[in-house]
Structure prediction request, 276 residues.
Amino acid sequence: MYSLRKTKYYRKIPRIFFTGANPFVLSTEKLKTLAKMVKEYYPFYKTIGCFARITDIMPKSLEDLKELRALGYDGITIGVETGDDESLTFMNKGFQSKDVLEQCRKLDEAGISYNFFYLTGIYGAGRGEVGAKKTAMLFNQLNPKIIESSMLTIYKTSELYQEIQKGNWKEESEIEKLIDKARIIITHAGVGTITECLEKGKKIIVVPRLKKYLEHTNDHQMQITKEFEMKGYVIALYDKSRLSAALDKIKTFKPKKYESNSENFRMKIKDYIDNI
Prediction:
């Protein structure tokens, strides 16, 4: 931990970042000692960052945090991962969404800026949309400078893997994780895929599979695409050479809010297919 070396080459570095799990777990006094060492070896530094957990902030008083800010601690990255209390409890995170609000507002008052780590896949199969909305509601009440996203990886040696084997939790599929993380979706005109993406609030470019290219036995996907396009839900791409233009268009495209009318829509598609 105390292996900083004096060097004429890096003495003017403006920012130091402590790595290795979550250094903010250290006591206020130890963090102050580290800051003083940084000052000795890198006298021109401006800020010190590090990784942190919400539970690392809890024992520190507002005055502690103000002292740390005065020594340069700023821009810490917090592994919040989700604002969904059900997931936080199941994953044994040791805090709830109300704790995130309380502790981050304490950072705000102390003048310490912060970033969030968001973890896709943490909700389990079928709960991605619910969890993401709860997380967005939480994050929108706070002031993170950056929200970084990563995907949940499950190792066979983990407790979570054992819970899966017991049937207590079901992993979100890889495609669900990718959809959750994506800003723009390019997809064929499968009704299930389109509606799933719309329900997750994604911008979608739909490329129908066509009979003339032997991609399908008929052109029912053309009709599906037109239905969604006319309702203002998607950008349709009938000519693949126009993909670049479609990508430019979708940047400013504001899709109509999707309201499911599944039965009526399915009947329209069925009638079309029956009459081919």
About this structure: The domain at 15-171 is CATH 3.20.20.70 (TIM Barrel). The two ends are 72 Å apart (CA to CA). Residues 28-41 form the longest helix (14 residues). DSSP finds twelve helices and eight strands in the chain.
